[in-house]
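2024-03-11 09:14:02 DEBUG pipeline.ingest accepted 1 chain
2024-03-11 09:14:02 DEBUG pipeline.ingest length=608
2024-03-11 09:14:03 DEBUG pipeline.predict start
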Amino acid sequence: MISQSFIADLLDRVDIVDVVGQYVKLRKGGANFSGLCPFHSEKSPSFTVSPTKQFYHCFGCGAHGSALGFIMEFSGLTFPEAVEDLAGRVGMQVVREDGGLPPAEIAKRKSEAVSLTDFLAKAADFYRKQLRASPKAIDYLRQRGLTGEIAKRFGLGYAPDAWDSLRDAFDSYDAKELVSAGLVIDKEAENGERAKRYDRFRDRVMFPIRNPRGAVIGFGGRVIGKGEPKYLNSPETPVFQKGNELYGLFEAREAIRERGYVLVVEGYMDVVALAQSGIGNAVATLGTACTPVHVQKLLRQVDRVVFSFDGDRAGRKAAWRALEASLPHAGDDKLLSFLFLPSEHDPDTFVRERGAEAFEAEVASAMPLSAFLLQELTADCDLRTAEGRSRLMSSAKPLIGQVAGAALRTQLGNELAKLAQIETGAAMNELGVSRWQQRPAPPRAARAPVASLEQKLLLLLARHPALAREMSTDDEAILLAGSPIEESLRLLIQLARAGHGHVTTATIHAQLQQFDPPAELRAAVDAELPDGATDAGGDSQDSPEEDPEAQLARTELAEGLARLRLNRVESEIQQLIAQGSGMDMSQFRELQAERIKLRSGNREISGA
């Protein structure tokens, strides 16, 4: 786990305006900067960046966050990857909590990874040059309908039909990094002879695989003519894990945002052919089944994912695996669907024969996840019999429980109840999720619960986290003792005290990305961030003495803590009185004196 103090120090060192400004054209207007939102299409700027709050917010689509959040959402990086990215920009080495790898080991692994990507980048350059010199490879790509522009965009290359062509690309063909990067293979020595080394990829069109930053981390090679395997992938390496990466995601990012969905296909050539036809929002799994990591990466980019598979038995099997990987991420605000092309087509051949418009029409009619799930569940169940309906419920139970969205789970439960011909509540119980049983809606006139004093103080500290850092041990004890939201208050104080620079709400928000905080803490922090209309408050760069709002917040905190003290003293007095004649009179007199002192020390509390 990355050190919270490191995250705080990192955010204190980077400027969100500089970070966002590398991707979005920003114009200064008053205290903030504005520009066109990179996360949805718009003509009038609704995207603002606050240099004092160190936070971005779009009033159009609601996207908001810190510099870390922006890098994660824009580039599709995980939290650790985004931290590494930002740290690299300012020359910081990521520090992890005790229990992780030692700093020296972390530095060593990072250095090795950089070395491997350097070797892979050099190989990619070599393969591109070889493509330009190979009429055979050029003719093959032309026959597939590809132009030089698309080949350049995807960095396509060609691995010559030779055992050691990479010898011309590197100073030393014996470098161990060539093996570690998956570019060459060492054949085991026999009869005392020296091990023989040879190129992994030979006589193949080469598809570089990039990570979200654009660095080459592996290759896919498509044989020209006949040969097995048709596609050959790089092996697993320190920088390349097939279950985590998607081909074409780096190249497709802009098109994904413009079209509002991502299309998942099965092969490299499908991705490139679709891009050639103007459909640039396609990605492909790397010769492996779709994984939950794949789905999570895609849903960071966009809320709609369409899986496209062949309509044959193998295609439907692959689609089912994708469905299983999607269930834990199938939220109520996400749309996942499945497109099955005619059995004689894959996306490449379909687009070349029928055109992009016909393919888009197929995408528009793709089968929703819920429909595909129910279709597959009922395929081998005879719903005319009690046994068949029972089999349906048994098969559905382990799958429905994985669905992330509560509303979607409920809808699926309702549909299964109809198919199984049983009452909805009984179906929900049968599925093992009895909490889904419908409850009567609260009266329309019911009031929202009044926030407790602790909740108000949580909001106050989320708005002015510097006050949490200043809090004394005694004040912290008063705030936490017996509080129903002790976990949220304690964590907020801990995060505010991490790091050494200026602490802001944006800092706290970024730190919360690393784990799953209590809901009330996340809500409190989020509630303080979207308002970009003002730059006053706890995120101001002014010192507390110069900031009137911070001074007022300090007074509110002192009054709130005094009220908590008074409430707890009065509670203790009532507990003593309840003991009757057996109560401790000396303790009673001490509590009475403390109550008088607290009331006289804050007349406003006394009159409340």
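2024-03-11 09:14:41 DEBUG pipeline.report Residues 103-233 form a domain with the DNA primase DNAg catalytic core, N-terminal domain fold (CATH 3.90.980.10).
2024-03-11 09:14:41 DEBUG pipeline.predict end
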